[in-house]
Amino acid sequence: MSTTPEQSAVDDEAPPVSAEVEESRDEISQLKHAVDSHASVDQAIGVVLAVGQLTPAEAWDVLRELSMRTNIKLRHVAELLVEWGKTGELTGEIRAELDRQLRMRRS
Asked: What does pTM read for this prediction?
């Protein structure tokens, strides 16, 4: 496919993507990631809430403690708990800490 001289002139005149546009694209990407992470955290709170018969605030505290005590990012802990809700499989370290956190709140 060949281009006409007019099309070439238009292509040559196209402005480069500005730094502001690039910055906006990066921000949109970060916001999409944050929304996805927030959804996983909310779902994990629901799993902990149901399993532990806790309030949403207590379930949030458990999730936060799990992350801190296992040294695993909160988002990843949340993803693992949501997956546990689907498959019934949870790593030993997180399972042990989850059990400990739930026992503490029941006593």
From this structure: 0.69
